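hi support,

uploading two proteins for the ticket. first:
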Amino acid sequence: MRQRIQSTVLLFALFLFSSCNSLELKEYKNTDELVEEARSEIDFISQEELKAAIDNEKQFYLIDCREKTAYDSASIPGAIHIPRGLLEFQVSTKAHDHNRNVYIFCEDGSKSALAATVLPRLKYSNVKSLKDGFKAWKQNYPDMVELEPDGDETATNVPAPASGGGCGG
């Protein structure tokens, strides 16, 4: 009986140890391979779908994750600027409702694809990356490009934060 208990404990310990070691860190040959995998894991919003959302949806988050100099030169009207390198640190203060649709874009869709893989880990449930990015947006909708945007404080499609609430509200 004692030997049976020891064998069971040993098998359980081996199982536990092997399951902890199954978390492998995936390595990539280059950034392009990393971005391609990210693109295979996310949902996209087409240029036309984003245009319709801007025209028809009441509230959603449109996040421009390009660097400040790119954002300062031009963006999509109503976009919230959160550079990709600061996304994890700033998104919850600028996009507080985790159930709201989030549409994110960068110049060509690479950085926004990476960002779109992170946001669900931060409990954002409806995240889509703009297919082909801002570069294509400028070509398809030049009349919907804001030159030298004032900043995301003027965004009209962003809901106001919930008032009160304590304990994370």
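and the second one:
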Amino acid sequence: MEDIHHLVNVKRLIEGEGLVLSDGKGSWAEFVVTKATKARNGGLSLERQGEIVVDPLPRYPVGVALFMPKLDRLSWAIQKLCEVGIDEIYLLKDAFDRRGGKPPSMDRLSRVLKEAGAQSRRSRLPLLDEIGSLNNLIDFKEVALCDFNGGPLRSIHRTLVVGPESGMMSPDKPCEKVKLPGGVLRTETAAVVSAALMVALRENLVGEIDKAWPI
């Protein structure tokens, strides 16, 4: 009902107008509005135009794990991570995390993710998982830590971990380290930079200049 209210009373869809609907799992189709009722509860009738399309999976998934900043900044990070094309988002919490306060509502964060997917026209939404501690993540994922003393990002790096505001990360197991561009980045900035770099590397949008632009 929320979606119908938004389409009818906020977007003000009218009869004959077209739109694209997706299941968030890679499938989408074009529709045309056959009836729209602007009321408190609203009403919307649609007719599908053409076949359902299933977008291919990426060559490999890439993910970002971040220690949660305060809610407004976390919401911003999740929105931008979705927009740049990340596949997996892991939310971390450890003793040295300074965020404090109540844990975020996953329902609210899922709505942020859904809205970002619609805005950026993504047919497949990222996984959003509140995984707990960094050690929990390392137990089932091979990760690399974002660190000032790290090396360059490589295509073998599939999940990057962005530290908390304290800058402290002390996993029980050894991990590779990757250096991000810029100076001291805020948690949400580092998360989005990490995602953009990994997606760009996967999609062959960055590389050595002599290979990308032969003369």
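thanks. also noticed: DSSP finds six helices and nine strands in the chain.
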